[in-house]
Fold these 4 entries.
Entry 1:
Amino acid sequence: MTTVINVPPSLDEQSFEQIVEQLAPLPPDQKVLFDARRARWASPFGLTALLCAAQSRTERADFAVPEHPDTASYWARTGFFRHAADVFTLHGHVPRPRDGQDSDVLLEITPVIQSDDVHTVVTRIQHKAAEILHGQLKLETAATMGFGMMLSEACQNIVEHAGRGGWVAVQTYNFRQRLGRRVVVIAVCDAGVGFRQSLESDPSHRRDDRWGDARALESAVLHAMSRFKARDAGRGQGLAGIRRFCARWDTKLSVRSGTARIALVPAWDEDEALQQRLPYFPGAQVQIMIPERLASDPPSAARSRSTERAR
């Protein structure tokens, strides 16, 4: 018997929770069909997390391709179907991607398995990202170097902590109706061991009554804890570097792992800083959103409210 998992018409970081809610009660070997026939739009997070959902199953999942031709064509241009064919059995018409990329696709979906993949990702996107960040989002030139570092650290997190490969995608959107500005969105997702299990693998780790996925995220994201810290102080500091970039450039960071989600929330957004007791989903799913700088913005980036709100 096959269980149908309904993919919402608009798939992003928030609506992906609808998929997790449907998957969480099922055993990993339950046959499932991800029905995306009615889907009309998906963010980089939505598409990379879909691949992780398939990766988390021990029984190969089926996938019903979006029926709307514009949606299917766009998903093809992001590279989704090329990677989906490796983890899903596809049903429906899969269009061939057209030559050239839409200008909003900075980096099509790209697998990250080893450190060489991280170098390739950063090299491929660096020049185009500089053009977008400085020319369109009106950020200072210094943001470009920081962007490359941040992207590298986010991808390296998969290599060092996931225990299996993941995917990264980068895109720019015109979010004028929702945010009143353009944004660059980075999604880095895997279905590996997650933050809690990674931290627990450190021999010096000690649990207490509060220990769990939420505490593990607080330790890693807010306090730069890592399973490498006791043995090598120079490793495991990637999230600290990402957090510094976010504070300087008014950027939003959200990280989901296991049953919890934490966010560094800038003044322009109203997300929750910490969510607990979510339906379980393996690995770690990271989204970074860099907004356009407006003339009305203060001279320095607004400080994140998330540290105070998460406590």
Entry 2:
Amino acid sequence: MTKLDRRTLLAGAVATGAALALPPRVFAQAWSLTGQHRKILAVAKEQLERNRARLWRTDIVGVADFALPSSLPRFHFANLETGQVRSFLVAHGRGSDPEHDGFLKNFSNEFDSLATSRGAFITNEWYKGKYGTSIRLTGVDPDNSNALDRAIVLHPAWYANPDMLEKWGKLGRSDGCFAMAEADFNEALWHLSGGRLLYADRLGLG
């Protein structure tokens, strides 16, 4: 078996539940193959160019790939200056996953849908909310234009912590917000806030 085959096999094992035996901090590390990183960086660059005029900072782009289940690190911080990709767990909205099986089924821009929205978001200022320090988001596409008024934000949450995977094999659900593990959220505060781009869709990057 080649090195590439071994890595591919490991990735499949993670997807089927073997990830539950791994140390929690593994989920805050770059985990995918180089080919997947190239795809993430390409999406980040494409969306940055599409939205460049709206952005204050263009060094790092957040890419949320909701084709993956909540048990896998699907929130990627793509550094376009260094080519580095770091990946984190992120929860989706309960309205996007009514069966609560860990898979996002649908997006919504509607009020009271409790669903995640797709599209490009601009990160705004920090504020203190229900889950502590959080980052407001402005949606700039038709599919997420209500994000600010819906209070769709980026915040830490206990139900997005890795220990949820040990108990349930999936994260909890938000009310449509991008909820990260509490120990990882400082990464967003330092590297994704302040007028940067966050792009979310069902991308299927790996």
Entry 3:
Amino acid sequence: MLLAASARAQPSEAAERLASVEALRAARAAPEGTLVGLEHLARVAERHRERTPSPWIGRLDRYLAEAEAGRDPYVTEARGEITVRAYRSALSERLAGYAVYVPPGYDPARRYPLLVALHGGSSNGNLFAALALGARVSFTDYRRYWWTVHAPRLAPEWIVIAPDGFGNSMWRYYGERDALDAIADACARYSVDAERVVLFGLSNGGLGSFNIGTRHAWRFSAVVPLAGAPGWSHYTGGAPSERERRVLEPLSGWSLIENARNTHLHAHHGRTDPGPMRPRYVEELAAHTDVLEVPFTLDWYATGHDLVVPVQRDGRVFDEEAERRRDPSPASVTLVTGDYRAARQHWVEVTRIDDYPSIVAVEARREAARIVVSTRGSLRALRLHEVRAREVVIDGARVPLEGATGAVDLVRGEGGWRVGAPRARGKRPGVSGPLGDALYEPLLHVYGTGGERPHLLREAAERGARGFFENLHDVVQPVVADTDVTDAQLAGAHVVLYGSPRSNTVLARIADRLPIRVAADGVSVGAQRYGGAHVGVRFLYPSPFGAGRYVIVQAAARSEAVAAGHRLPAFLPDWVVYDARRLPARPGNLPTARSRHVAAGFFDDAWRLTPEGSTPR
């Protein structure tokens, strides 16, 4: 045996167990997915050790013993337990953890429904898995129980996972990708019934359930938000500017609710909820879904925000959703999107949008030997999957398919719709903006080493490498000096550049190929100049270093103004010019009235500045 019993999880003891994991890895004695889980469990034991003997270290010892015996502990020892495992995320150098439960009698030969539980801002994956499985913890006590080893009070014949979401990401950008990646990892490790996947969340997790559950509705049999706002426009106060609306709508359940026509949508809300998830928001959503003829179930409770106990006291969601199945290929499909990262529902996919980002919609239905499609908005191209038809009638025009099967691309030109794909240039999937689009992918943070106070640029890069939002956990991305970065590194990731052409040699190399310029006396956006060393800019643009990559520039004449860019709000268009003196001490979701951007805007579909974009806000 490699192991000895342990009384207390000291760092040295956790290190011993990490060494045992590495020994198993070197011997190829266990699947890599299992070893990644054990590695994460060892780090949980080290980072969250208790004054009394830690049950995490004892659990790890049991799991390691199983792995050494050639068995998968996540299938044998972990049955009936709430435990933690992890996967390797592209977004962070640290492992991305999630809590998992499999039933006591788990049999890999069966297919089990999967509950995906999204925690709120005061919780984490470990605690929220326990809450979903019947634990009774007061909302005010959540933080005390984040890393308690919880025993499930319910024993459903379900698999349950609760991603960590990189902390309080509010399930946007980093958090959305983590949720989808954790689902993919669980489906690879366990026997999941792909037609019975339920998305469930409380508070911020309720907001995330509305948003992710409509953006990717075709992946779920049911979406069950608890105490959640139905979209970002509501959560941020209900009155975004037109520019802000263009960023928020493609991420918001309210705008995308028609995608749920083939997914059961069942919300729960407290009548006296006092927070930003106001009861009137879901009342308005109920009226909105009536108008759009989208099935929507809403249950009210005579309580406030803490709804997990009243909803899951007896395992209600498990009982109600156990046999509900999604239709993997419905005859009629509605797709509403303004984001290439959420541009598919079932067999309909949007492949190009003009005036990006803007909301477009597709209604498609199969009729014998043809497919009937109607579109709205500035839709340029789409793809139909699973085609078994002789023709498409799109916006009233007949397009013969000439025996095409499988996937068919349709593009709209001056003469109307025809079979064909759009040109691979300009804004397109993977290189479309806005700024948040880069946060779904690996980022390399490169700081300048020249000029005055270069240590501030290094600190700015290190801050960005921990995520561009507050309250994130375990986002650790690579940071490198401009003098040390290689061309291979620059070509292999989205690159964030900190400094100015005077202080950052990488930025100096490409400055003449970028549409926004930074000089000693200010920032120039096209013909418009914004003067002052306190003026900074953040923008993204197709990378000159590698195809399909972004370069993100956070620049100003002074290093202090570069660092101040981390106080920008979360939701931004393609570019923003800011006054470092007016930014708030802590970033919010949208700029406040006092700290409005100097200017902000979108590039056009060819990545050019628009006339609107070159004028002050």
Entry 4:
Amino acid sequence: MSDAATESVARFAADWEASLRGTRAEPPRLSHYVPDGSAVRLSVLADLVRIDMRQRWQRPGAPGRRMVDYAREFPELAGGPRFVELVCEEYAVRQQYRRIAVSEFVGEYAPEFPELAVRLRTLLNGRDDPPPAEGDPADPAAVGILPADVEIGATLDDFDLLTVLGGDESAKVFLARQRSMQRLVAVRVEVGAGHDAHTVAQLDHRYIVRVFDQRLVPARARQILRLQYMQYMPGGSGDDLIRLRRTATTLDGSLLLRSVDAAMAAKGEIRLADSSVRAELSALSWPEAVAWLGRRLATALDYADHQGLAHRAIQPSNVLFTAEGVPQLADFSLRSPNTAAAQRIRWSYWSPEQLAALHDPDAPEPDARGDIYSLAVLLWEILTGTNPFDDTPAVSDDAGRDEAVALLLRRRRAGVGAGAIARLPPDTPATLRRVLLECLDPDPARRRRSGADLAGQLELCLDPRARDLVDPPPNSPRRRTRGWLAPIAVICVALPNLLASLYNIRLNKVLIIDGLSAAAQARFATVVAINNVATFTVAGVLILVLCRGPFVAAYRLARAGPSREFIADPARLRAQTLTIADRLVWVPFVLWLVAGIVWPSALMWSGVVLPSHGVLQFYAAQAVCAAIALAYPFFLVSVYVVRSVYPQLLVMGGAGPSDGRQLQRLQRRSTVYLAVAAAVPLVGVVSVTFVPTWQLAQVIVALRVLSVGGIAAFVLTYWLFRLLEADVRALRGWCVDGVDGGHSR
């Protein structure tokens, strides 16, 4: 099929979707998309009819369109080999959306197509009967056992079956050549016509196997075969990777590439030349490679969830790989396997709520967190080579269905055991361990809430600096001081302000107080005491009011363990935490400047006469102290917050580009504070210009201490600035690239 013909089918499907969304007034006219005089006209027409028929019958209250109507508009259909297939597909669609009996359906075709009606009655006989119960013995047609002639070398419809890629007696996946398009595809063949592949075929994501369409093909023994054809993945499956992991002696990212190359060699494929993706994988440790895989599969789940589709069947065989080792998720929303063995293998990856639903059909429908649980089980098995739960006795065929399900459910509700945790590789990052255990929590409310949330956490595992910030070693000071935000912040603010006060007291004593009378000095001391009490009280109240949220949250988080339900708005709390240093330093900064005006005014009001140069000297000293109070505490508090307090808020979920922008603004503000820190010695020198010449000798020692101390403090501040810059860059890169990657990456 030419590119133009393929584009015609894709454009028709897109225009139908636009019509359903209301952005297009009328459904598209099928005849406008059929190529004229083309050798592939009939193939394109059949694909267009499938799309059009399914869309029309699924619209509530809208009249559907029968194959009789299509045959009248396009006479070549009625005489073509695909007419019976399309008629069977019409029955499947109408049975799904309008519930029509076989007898009624066949009766509609009897007057105009009597020979076809006889054939349909044979093909569809028994299709109205309810499906057999799981595990019940029945004839092959009822249970869904594939006919024996569905094997390598056979031709089904448009597909030549070349080799078996996987499956069992109820469903097999073949590598096939699609004749009309001259391409290799993977074809899943199973018995039955009940599955709707239309929604699955609309999934278009770089980490989801692209399903092109499905076809219904008549077979023997009153069966209809469903052929779902999809993108061919040459790199094997998760089963191949896990088998290799169990026997591997060298564990690193190249293990995935070895699995892919072995799968390709078994199919006679040529190993792909080195690529940037393969180079990236080779440089990763094995736990990092697992996080790399999981991050991509999680984005696929998030994309599908936003399309209203859950997977419900995550297991190793449904993870396929490209020649580069990129994972692709397959088999979205396929019905449950028909054989007991296949069912029990799948159960090993089910969440507790999915297993509970087998016992209680009225149980709540599992949401996206059920798929997240299944993905975590799969990633754990890839990481360690073993399932996190010892399911071997439970999934054996000797156990009854209810007994096996009950045992699986008990084990999952008990959580991951210490033995399973001990099997994690020694170089497993604490972040990856935490994320997997969170996603394997038996309570869905305590798991990651979406695929995008999980993807962001797994992306974090790939950045050593970022993951060390979020999950520091258990006994590290950064982890142990997480709940001490209030006392540490107060100390960080108080210490520079204390040093500034000592400088201010020394300067004022030399320049002002020593020149006053004893009575004036007494009044000066009284005014200073009153002002200090008032200033410290106002500063304390303002700091508590402005910083109460982060103070309380940090304290409670350090003592709440994994329970964080008391955090109503994590995004707002993160924003407040990133700006807490600004609020802490601006309060004393403003008060120092205000005090430079209030204190002289109060002194003169009390009767103390100050010379004009004394007022200027007093205010200049206050300005120096204000600069000290602004610059140095900012970096002390910011570094502590970013390295200890803020990261634990990021892992609560909901982080994204907005957090990245807030971190970027913090980085920009830090350059302003760094400039203020550099200016402290300069401001001190400028303040001396207000000192009379005869008093310079009295302040030279204090000025030297300020200059030398200011330079030393700037060196320390610059080191903190670079440390803060590196930490912010790591967290910001994760927020922007990791957390926001759910739909597009």
